[in-house]
What we know:
Structural class: alpha/beta
CATH architecture of the largest domain: Up-down Bundle
CATH topology of the largest domain: Dehydroquinate synthase-like, alpha domain
CATH superfamily of the largest domain: Dehydroquinate synthase-like - alpha domain
Oligomer: single chain
Strand content: 5-15%
Amino acid sequence: xxxxxxxxxxxxxxxxxxxxxxxxxxxxxxxxxxxxxxxxxxxxxxxxxxxxxxxxxxxxxxxxxxxxxxxxxxxxxxxxxxxxxxxxxxxxxxxxxxxxxxxxxxxxxxxxxxxxxxxxxxxxxxxxxxxxxxxxxxxxxxxxxxxxxxxxxxxxxxxxxxxxxxxxxxxxxxxxxxxxxxxxxxxxxxxxxxxxxxxxxxxxxxxxxxxxxxxxxxxxxxxxxxxxxxxxxxxxxxxxxxxxxxxxxxxxxxxxxxxxxxxxxxxxxxxxxxxxxxxxxxxxxxxxxxxxxxxxxxxxxxxxxxxxxxxxxxxxxxxxxxxxxxxxxxxxxxxxxxxxxxxxxxxxxxxxxxxxxxxxxxxxxxxxxxxxxxxxxxxxx
Length: 381
């Protein structure tokens, strides 16, 4: 196991009816801006619960943080927050709303354009407090300091690092009315988050391997049941907590990480607007095939422990494991080929160009260059 320093300051508040605790979690004197996406929170009752819980607080609302939150929208929220002298933020929604609100929390204390904070490689440590009410499990943003921000005018998408939410409220009932595609993409997103921290090499940490495999096994078990009945409280509770645990830092303790699939997926989202989790379902199998020489031992372990694949030659077991993974994503109702989304060579060449232009190389070995990213995508045509 590698050396590490770990601290997660987010207070997790889980369960039915826990949105009512908002008034206890936010000091009465705070000037709050509540951020939202579209209008789904008004249809599922979350909006009313939030407003009732904060009826004695000063609140301003900002609506319209879109999937893959854009700097163009977030600039407007920052301007409103500065005008209203906001000193506490509450994000109500999924990962995109929470991600966008993280940038708002830094932008409110920044004199320049908030895009400067996004393209900087430094963590934005000067922020105002942020809480969340999660309504769409997927990104784990409710219990980490990461975010991803888009710039629509240039079709760019960058990771951004800030402070963790002070608290996050997770009520599984808020997920009951989500569209099936969003749930599918959220399961895929959670699955690949864990894979990125797990699918590297064997023998570094038995504990982290088992923890990761436990989340993966849980997702494989509950996914078909959720497709049959997404109103099952316990199933959705397991889904919510899997998403949170998948990217709150726990399974990453002392182990190498990859993230190449994510970086390629971000470009597909930036260029075509595909849901983030969906892009990961498309890319992952290509990553595993192209990098199987270095990841082979871990693929075999993953295949045996998650998919019970133990018979055949080494190459046969690796191939069957990769196929099982792709079949899992397809069982969610997601496409797994670029051609199914009308994406061809022009996009593949553009992603290679972007990687090369930035001089980046991802993966645990730093070997996923523009050339390798292209090779990965060519397997997904």
